[in-house]
Structure formats: C-alpha cells, structure tokens
Amino acid sequence: MKTEFITAISNPRTSWSKALGRTGKTSLEFDHEIAVTRADTGVRIEAIDTSGSRTAILIPVKASSGIRPILLGGDRHALLIGISRYAVKPGLPDLDSASLDVRDLAEALQKHAGFKRENIRLLVDDGARHAQLRNALRNFTARPGPDDLLIIYFVGYGLHDPSDHERIYLAAYDTQLRQLSETALGLEEVRSVIAGSARSRQALLLFDVARELQGEWNFGGNNLVNAYLLRLFSGDPTKAVMVASGLGELGRDAMGGHGLFTKHLVEAATGKADWNQDGLVTVEEWFQQVARAVRAESQGKQSPKYVLRASERLIFAGNK
Question: Would you say 304 and 290 are in contact if contact means Cβ atoms under 8 Å apart?
C-alpha cells in the first residue's frame, strides 16, 4: 500500500498543509521544524492513503512552567567603568587590575557576544571623574530601547561614609573623603538615576567594589557595600545584579593582572557558560558559571552573589 503523508499545523490564526512525498514503504520518517506562536495550541500530523483513509495524531504544545526565556531581539549596550588610579594623594590605593579588567571585558563582548563597538562606553581612570560618571549613568543608559540589553560594570571602590555608615558610595577618580556627597556616587543616586533613565527591560548591573581600604578610608566596621548593592533594585524584575564577593569578603586578583571576578566573566562570556552547547548564553548560565569558577579558584574565599528572578532568563550572547 502506498502511503501519502500530509502535515497540518493548526492554531486559531493559521491552517496549512504540505505533502511530504510518496513512498512504497508503510512508514516515513521526516524532520520538520515548526514555530508555534502561542501556547496551548498543538501540531496535528495526518496521514492519508490512496483510498482516502485518514489517521491523525495531535501533539499538544503547552506553556512550560515558569516564564519562558526571552530571546534578545534588539541591540546590546555596555557601560564599563574601571578606575585604577585616583587623583587625590594620599588617597585611595591604586587598583592595577581595574582598567585592564573593563578593557578586556569590552573586547570579549565585542568579539564573542554581539556588542557593536559604538555601543560600548569605556570610562577609565581620569576619564571616570564624578561628573563624567553621573553624565554616563544618566545619558548612556537612556540609549538602549526596551528590547535592548544593557550591561553596567563598575570596578573600583565601594565606600562607607565614615561619619554615617548607612551611606554607601562608589568612588570616582576625583573622590575626596571629606566631600563624599559631592565627589562620589551615592548608591541612592545610582538607583534613582538608572531607574529614571534606563528604558531597557533587560539590564545587568555588575560590581567588583569590595576592596581593602587603609587609614581613614577604612571606617572599621563590616563592609556592607555588596549587601546594599544586591538590594539596590529590589522588586524591579528588569534589573539583575551581581557582586564579585560575599559579605565580609574582598575581591581578589588572578594571575596575569586581572581581577579574579573579571577573569571568569570574560571566560564565561566567550563560551564556558554555554553548558548545553546551543550557541546561546543566558544570564542565569553566565552568572552561575562565574560564581562557581570564582569560588573554585579562590578555594571558597571569594563567592560572587547575585539577584536573578525567574523572569530574567535572558539571552545575552550568541556564539554560533
């Protein structure tokens, strides 16, 4: 008996059929990819023989549990800030790895993660003065549209105000201890400016700012900067936050002059986080790979933490 196979795909909007051919066999294998545009519909496969008899099966397509991954359809933008040298002397200790870190991440994002050169803004050393940081946070973060991805990475110092430990700042190139509110970025200012300017529904904020402080810069208590950063956008499902180390831990450098955290951010972005080898890296894959790798290399002395909600399983890199 000769058999003719016909596939019919149905949903409330479309209906079409396609003959796949005739064969002398009683069965036929075929591979055909179908895009289903809405959940709770199905794919109907129907076979009709030469006498007109029909056999059909319906394969239901159900929504998966939780919220499905969002494929990034827009552009990718990155604001990368790394401060190795500071203007005030004596002042904050130099961080040799900071400017190298953001330059290398910029290169990795451009080569491996689909970022255009013109969509990456680098602010390093004397190019990261207080006024320049405020301007970039307000204006650059407003560039990405709602469907674009925005990454902000800050490598430098997070500071407690010695006179009021509840006030936390990110140090700029020209930050002065006696004028923190005028020369450094307060976390509340960072939160309000980004919340007011960024239109992207897919924003990742990364911080490597828990570093050892000496002298009067060290207020003598527990460093809670990372704890405050993780709560910075609490309740906002469009923002994912990752910090380089846990409570009471300091950021470390790796061999070769990089910060340990950045080393693994770069490696994960260039393919190591693609566990299922599908050519795509989700934020969750990226964060999990970095956290595991940093903990392993530091022998548990540095443990990155992150806040990532189920709705933020976003594609950020396509390595195919």
Answer: yes
Structure tokens that stand for 213 in this block = 């402080």
Domain boundaries, the chain: 3-61, 76-318
Helix boundaries (H) for the chain: 96-112, 130-139, 180-183, 187-197, 225-230, 260-267, 283-297
Strands 54-61 and 41-49: antiparallel
> Could you count the other beta carbons within 10 Å of the beta carbon of residue 287?
24
Q: Which residue has the tokens 């405020």?
A: 134
Strand order of the sheet with strand 54-61? Answer: 15-23, 3-10, 41-49, 54-61
| pLDDT of the residue at 313 | 53
pLDDT tens digits, residue range 142-194?
A: 999 998 999 999 999 998 887 777 889 999 999 998 898 999 999 999 999 99
**Average pLDDT estimate for 20-29:** 48
- What token pair was written down for 301? 């002395």
CATH number of 76-318: 3.40.50.1460
The answer to whether the CB of 105 falls within 8 A of the CB of 262 is yes
pLDDT given at position 77: 96
How many whole angstroms separate alpha carbon 140 and alpha carbon 193? 11
With a pLDDT cut of 90, the percent of the chain lying above it is 42
Please report, as a single letter, which amino acid is at residue 150.
L
d(CA 199, CA 202): 9
